[in-house]
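dumping this here before i forget
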Amino acid sequence: MINWKKFNGLEGFKAIVGQESNPLLLFKHSSRCSLSTMALERLERHWQQDMGVACYLINVINEREVSNEIAKTYDVVHESPQVLLCVKDQCLYHASHIEINFSVISKEISKLKIK
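structure:
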């Protein structure tokens, strides 16, 4: 199971982007979309206990401002569902819809050489 964190609004996101020491895994989720729910459940089912990343779940319906800022900050077109792997203000990997795949995400995380 993933220990999802939440941003405390737009200011919370801005503060964390520059200060989080771990890479960020951002999952943009729409509770109104069955594909989003399926992608989220699939990711959670395969997730390993501690993969060295800080995981944030963004509800794109309730947190539209944060979702838009993520797209702007990382220069990635907004989609939902969408997963982004980021370090500081740089997006190293992103995928959306059926392209969200734990094996690929895990390989991308391992490339970061997290200690």
